Amino acid sequence: MKKFGAMVIALGALAACSGNDAIDVMGQKCTKVAMGENGEMLVKCPVTEDLTGLRAVEANAMLITADANVEEIAADKDSIYMNVVPATETIGTCYRILVNEPVFDGTTMNALEICESATK
């Protein structure tokens, strides 16, 4: 559980965009794959030990795929996909990490969602 708590803190350290299609997540250069209507983005990140550990946790949300090709996402074992969902008045920024063996059927949970506390 200590490692899980550290991951929440590390995910909270999401930095600003360093380019039009690149974003820094936990010190890793990730690539923007798609942008959603409400400002959420789908990013593709390199495989790291910490993110791999989170992919093994039971899913509690659905990945927002926007215009992304879900078949390609599910088949890509060399990357980790994650949504970055902007903060609202009541919830801080949320991160949805695609779990191992995702199912894209519109009803099955396929991501682990971790949200920061909202700041007032």
Give a brief rundown of this model.
It is built from 3 helices and 6 strands; from the N terminus they run H-E-E-E-H-H-E-E-E. It is an alpha+beta fold and 120 residues long.
Word description of this protein:
This protein has 120 residues and is of the alpha+beta class. Helices cover 19% and strands 29% of the residues. The protein has helices at residues 2-11, 49-55, 70-75, and strands at 22-25, 28-35, 41-46, 79-85, 94-98, 111-115. The protein has a 6-stranded antiparallel β-sheet with strand order 1-2-3-4-5-6, covered by helices on one side. A hairpin with a 2-residue loop joins strand 1 and strand 2. The termini are far apart.
Described by the principal axes of the CA atoms, the overall outline is globular
What structural class do helix, strand and pairing data support? alpha+beta
Number of helical stretches of at least 4 residues: 3
Question: What is the first-to-last residue Cα distance?
Answer: 28 Å
Q: What is the typical, i.e. mean, pLDDT?
A: 81
**Beta-strand content estimate:** 25-35%
| Largest beta-sheet characterization | 6 strands, antiparallel
Topology pattern, helix = H, strand = E: HEEEHHEEE
How many beta strands in the DSSP annotation? 6
Poorly predicted residue ranges:
1-19
Rg is 13 Å
Strand order of the largest sheet: 1-2-3-4-5-6
Into which percent range does the helicity of residues fall?
A: 10-25%
Strand and helix map with partners:
Blueprint: H1 2-11, E1 22-25, E2 28-35, E3 41-46, H2 49-55, H3 70-75, E4 79-85, E5 94-98, E6 111-115
Antiparallel strand pairs: 1-2, 2-3, 3-4, 4-5, 5-6
